[in-house]
């Protein structure tokens, strides 16, 4: 994780680096920090559907259903923009589950 953090802010900083850092943070049980890194990844590339999907999952798992719903909706739009049909389908399923769940 330290090597990934060392790259942040440099010429290699970007959506993929931030998503990789988020994955490392999830493995380290640092969910809040992972969410922040995914949001940063999406600042670099708002059409990065995999980051939206992971962000939605982390938000849902942390109990923030409304933010997860927003993330999945944005992710579905991003996936449609990129033609990423599989990510679109997966996020649609996750979104429907959250929308049907009692709030």
Features of the shown structure:
Serine Threonine Protein Phosphatase 5, Tetratricopeptide repeat, 103 residues, mainly alpha
- Overall CATH class: Mainly Alpha
What value does the Rg take, in angstroms?
14 Å
Category from helices, strands and their pairing: mainly alpha
Instruction: Please state the average pLDDT score.
Output: 94
Based on CA inertia axes, which overall geometry fits? Answer: globular
Report helical residue fraction. Answer: over 70%
CATH topology: Serine Threonine Protein Phosphatase 5, Tetratricopeptide repeat
As residue ranges, the low-confidence spans are none
Cα separation of the termini: 36 Å
Give the topology string: H per helix, E per strand: HHHHHH
> What is the count of helical runs?
6
Total strand segments: 0
The fraction of residues in strands falls at under 5%
Corresponding CATH superfamily? Tetratricopeptide repeat domain
Characterization of the model:
The protein has 103 residues and is mainly α. It has one domain (2-100): Serine Threonine Protein Phosphatase 5, Tetratricopeptide repeat, CATH 1.25.40. Helix content is 78%, strand content 0%. It is built from 6 helices and no strands. It has helices at 2-7, 15-27, 31-44, 49-61, 65-82, 85-100. Helix 2 (15-27) packs antiparallel against helix 3 (31-44) and helix 4 packs antiparallel against helix 5. The longest helix is centred in the last third of the chain and has 18 residues, at 65-82.
